[in-house]
Amino acid sequence: MAAKRVYQVWKGSNKFILGGRLVFGPDARSLLITLSLIIVPVIIFCVFVARHLRHAFSSYYSGYAILVVAILFTIHVLVLLCFTSARDPGIIPRNSHPPEEEFRYESSTVAGQQTPSLQFPRTKEVMVNGLPVKVKYCETCMLYRPPRCSHCSICNNCVERFDHHCPWVGQCIGLRNYRYFFMFVSSATILCIYVFSFSAFYIKVLMDNNDIGTVWKAIKESPASVILMAYCFISLWFVGGLTGFHLYLIGTNQTTYENFRYRADGRINVFNRGCLNNFLEVFCTEIKPSRNNFRAFVQEEVQRPLTTVISRGREPDDLGGDRRPKVEDDLDIGEDLLKISQRRNIEQLDEDIQNRGSNGAPHNTAEPDSILSSDHRATTIRSDARHSSWERSGNWEIAQDVFANSNVTESRNYVSSKETRQ
């Protein structure tokens, strides 16, 4: 069976084309609407307006520049749209298991006995520009999100410097494509102003014509110019307002997500480094390479070394020793299982000793210790026999086959010890 590539087994909601070279959001079809809203008006402008302005200037060929600039600038806008929607916005790869180094081993006294327990913090603090910032644990991606990272519910990914999910481009806007998104929106604004201006200029040219004279006759002569002016005016409220809003966000070093969520909190923006430095951070810093190689072949995860969970006695060395907070070694139910199994085997041993004493058969007093020690070694639960799942509540569930495996191991060991004595 041929090995699969990363994009073929990707757990997010992204869509890939060209063998994983281009990555889109799940709503990538909305790009067709955006493309039509850009291309169709430009085609109408070139055919019904710019074509008639080729000879409207004293220099015979200068009018061609209006047509050429419109086409080239439209291509520029489409390229920026492609860079925004068809690249990794800053997706953080998922972990296959929770970070074990974050587990905390704590013990509590219950009925006079020390009961071990695992604690897993859902938030932790990191330092940003000398100030503490809380980061949250993502249960879907099983990682602590870096500062300014958030999980997009539409793409089902954690995205660095998450700004928002834009349905018009069909992609999340994050660390790696925010610059292109702003340039796309601002360029679309300039294109609207360009088309609006020359459409109005064409109406003026028609009015100056001796055969038409009035504005109403000019509108009847070129209704496409009026339609383009109305369309560009409406579009300017959208893309123009969006450009102004993101200029404010860049100047204050905020994201759309932070501005809408923390606007009323009055918290200090630890990322603000001054207006000039904020603009330099967005436009003059090197874009980080993607953390994901979607075309790479999926590699099998290396199995962890098998570890055992052993019930520890009340030995002085254990009380003062260093206990390492391992996930496999600190399961409460595993320790309880071993204690129950030990107690059952001791009771069976007492009955066997009593039966031998009543029959008058000699027995060696050292045998119970050897049986206990061998039983202590046998009552281990290997990690490969445990099927556990980390639920959102933070509990470990142990399957029933663990109970069966532990019982089988203990009974076989007891029979073998008994046969050795006989």
What would a concise description of this structure say?
This protein is an alpha+beta fold and 422 residues long. 45% of the residues lie in helices and 12% in strands.
Task: Please tell me about this protein's structure.
Helix content is 45%, strand content 12%. By secondary structure, the chain is α+β, with helices and mostly antiparallel strands. It has a domain at 6-94 and 158-284. α1 packs across α5 (223-252) and α3 (178-208) packs across α4 (215-221).
Low-confidence runs of at least 5 consecutive residues = 306-338, 358-422
- Work out the strand percent: 5-15%
Largest β-sheet summary = 3 strands, antiparallel
- For the secondary structure, the number of strands is 13
Estimated helix fraction? 40-55%
